[in-house]
Amino acid sequence: MEHVEFFTLLLIVGGVLLLLLSMRSDQEAKQVSRFLDDNARQQTHETKFSLMGWLETAVPKSLASNQDEINEKFSAAGLYSTTYTHLYMPAKYAALIVGSALIYFALGSDDLTSMAAVLAVWVIAALILPDILLDSRIKAYRADVSGKLPYLIDLLAVCVQTGMTLESSFAYLAQEMKGFDPRMAKLVGKANDRAHIVGLDRSLDELYLHIPTSEMRSFVMTLKQSLQYGSSIYSVLTTLSADIREVNMLTLEEKIGKLAAKMSVPLILFIMVPIVILIAAPGVMRMMSGA
């Protein structure tokens, strides 16, 4: 009987995995039909109001199931090597199955309700938690690049002031920054490599898509204006660097200002409430003993 329940749970988990894989193949088929036949695309859109269409909107978009999307998310997190990215989804599903088996053998079949609850929590955590961690890594990487962007702007301004072009400045900084900031060096080197293929203007657009922050938008717009009008950008870059530093300082001051309000919550919970209890407890005890 225990083995029957275990295999039933495995079949449920396998059904969920097959459903996710079916969603992936369905999305790929829809994308192919859009490019091959416009009529087929319209027919697919009309006939897809079914269970799969509902699941496409119900399942969170953070569940990356396409290999290109996984590579893009790892690249957005600052992990440019795609050697092991193909193991991301198999590792996640393997952890799901192994964890489900361990939960079954650890809890047993005495309390099937609690085991099903723990198993459901584990399935949700195994499917969503890796993508949540990856999204947090992406946000941290973008914040780190935005914080270091003023130093890159200052170095680029110095290179431009010496007579170097923007293309040669990017190539020079990509080599020189490897010694003290490898992460920014990889970012600049990637932009420089793309500039040799699609041009600097398109490369700057891709750089902003890679780091979509307000600081990067100002930086990209400044460089694109220089490319379009041929104006000198040394003073503009130095002013932009100072403005970004000022904005970062204001953001830090805002966080410090919010810290006092956040500290008041534990102050009330762990200090004020016990003090009130200590003050009121003797009187309450005397009233209870007198009664």
TrEMBL record:
Membrane-protein topology: Multi-pass membrane protein
Its annotated compartments are: Cell membrane
Q: GO cellular component annotations, sorted alphabetically?
A: plasma membrane
Q: Keyword Transmembrane on this protein?
A: yes
Instruction: Say which domain of life the source belongs to.
Output: Bacteria
Q: Which PANTHER family match?
A: INTEGRAL MEMBRANE PROTEIN-RELATED, PILUS ASSEMBLE PROTEIN
* Name the UniProt record assigns to this protein: Type II secretion system F family protein
